[in-house]
Amino acid sequence: MKGTDVESYTQRFQELILLCSRMVPDESDKVEKYIGVFHDSIQGSVMASKPKMLQEAIVLARSLMDQKILTYATRQAENKRKMDNKSRNNHVQQSPCG
To answer: What segment(s) does the record annotate as region Disordered (predicted)?
Structure first.
């Protein structure tokens, strides 16, 4: 999987499963192979939910990846705001008292 492109990865994985059905004969093997490329935290969360079908694992992995991307974007925006505020505060000149 490249980056966070879950959709392309999922589509290609499903195509390969159809072409190479003997390599992953049962559903639990499909689930295990599918989540094998994700970050450890996503793998752990998907496995903890014990999906029995590939489709369950796909839905959960998509949801977790979406949450991860949203969290990252939110943090980036917060950090940018903090940096902008810090920059503005450093440029403001205070007038002498008295």
So the answer is: 76-98
Instruction: Indicate whether this model's pTM tops 0.90.
Output: no
DSSP letters along 37-57, please?
Answer: TS-HHHHHHHHHT--SSHHHH
pLDDT tens per residue across span 16-35: 999 988 888 899 999 999 99
Q: Which of 64, 56, 24 is nearest to 40 (CA)?
A: 64
Q: Which of 25, 27, 26, 10 is nearest to 63 (CA)?
A: 10
- The Cα–Cα gap between 25 and 66 comes to 29
Contacts within 8 Å (CB) and 24+ apart, 31-34: 31/56, 31/57, 34/10, 34/58, 34/61
**What is d(CA 63, CA 45) in angstroms, rounded to the nearest whole number?**
11
